[in-house]
């Protein structure tokens, strides 16, 4: 919500193309906010029942519950995703889609978000992250994970970059 260039339908469509719906498990959306990306993921073919939304803000979580009642909502801080997924009984993920401002998290907080998700994703599973920054949103070298910029959506004068992160 405080993004320089907030996500819209074009960004949501690009993120929807990153989903690996052929893989087992739910699609996890981190920082679901107002549901703009959620709407795009559903329009992109993800059944609402397969979406797990993580949102920390109470008002936004209430909005998501009202507008996306068939999704599973976890209200909590994504930096505690390991515990949140364990409490929810989620042991496998198909894809992770994140719009968190993770670029600005300290390394240990990046690790706390990304590494549990990658473990739940397993081989060939992608943690997908957007950023308005000109560089990678996650310090892949420090985390010892793979990274690739896979797309960009130009909004006004800046691109919203889409990155994938994965384990070998």
| E-strand count | 7
Range of helix content: 25-40%
Number of helices: 6
Give the count of structural domains: 1
Q: CATH superfamily assignment?
A: Vaccinia Virus protein VP39
Low-confidence stretches: 1-5
Q: What is the strand arrangement across the widest sheet?
A: 3-2-1-4-5-7-6
Shape: globular
Query: Helix/strand/pairing class, anyone?
Result: alpha/beta
How much of the sequence lies in strands comes to 15-25%
Characterize the main sheet: 7 strands, mixed
The CATH class, by name, is Alpha Beta
CATH architecture: 3-Layer(aba) Sandwich
From the N-terminal CA to the C-terminal CA, the straight-line distance is 33 Å
Round the Cα radius of gyration to an integer and report it. Answer: 14 Å
**pLDDT average, as an integer?**
94
- What is the H/E order? HEHEHEHEHEHEE
According to CATH, what is the topology?
A: Rossmann fold
Plain-language structure description:
With 168 residues, the chain is an alpha/beta fold. The chain has a single domain, classed as Rossmann fold (3-Layer(aba) Sandwich), CATH 3.40.50.150. The chain has 6 helices and 7 strands. Strand 2, helix 3 and strand 3 form a beta-alpha-beta unit. The longest helix has 15 residues.
Keyword list:
single chain; alpha/beta; Rossmann fold; seven-stranded mixed sheet; 7 strands; globular; disordered N terminus
Strand-helix topology:
Elements (H helix, E strand, L loop, with lengths): L8 H8 L10 E4 L5 H8 L7 E5 L2 H10 L4 E4 L5 H8 L6 E4 L8 H15 L5 E5 L8 H4 L2 E10 L2 E9 L2
Parallel strand pairs: 1-2, 1-4, 2-3, 4-5
Antiparallel strand pairs: 5-7, 6-7
